[in-house]
Amino acid sequence: QAQLVESGGGLVQAGDSLRLSCAASGRTFSTYTIGWFRQAPGKERDFVAGINWSGGVTRYADSVQDRCTISRDNAKNTVYLQMNSLKPEDTAVYYCAAGPDPYYSGMVYGARYDYWGQGTQVTVSA
User: Fold this and answer.
1) How many helices (H) and strands (E) does the chain have?
2) How confident is the model at residue 17 (pLDDT cuts 50, 70, 90)?
3) Could you tell me whether strands 120-125 and 10-13 are parallel, antiparallel, or unpaired per DSSP bridges?
4) What is the pLDDT of residue 116?
């Protein structure tokens, strides 16, 4: 079992950067794939980025491909999402999620994740 806590969100201007953190508890964290998702008001939850248990496989949504980097430190039970060149359309609540699905193809599906954090708000002003 895992519990996830996101942090690092805030109010920034377009072009700024943020680093989100997802801190996990639980002995099996290092075996889980971790995904970042986001949900803007009135919209569905969308996949942002994912990383497999070793950090050797990552996947990004097209909308953030060139602006975000996901990484993990299993010794610290933490996954990071570095976001650069932020745009107003990046405004959303960002959630991290953990699940045992190790495969690249499964990272984008929220249903593949068993545990979710409470979310952190990211607001980007124009």
Assistant:
1) 0, 11
2) very high
3) parallel
4) 96
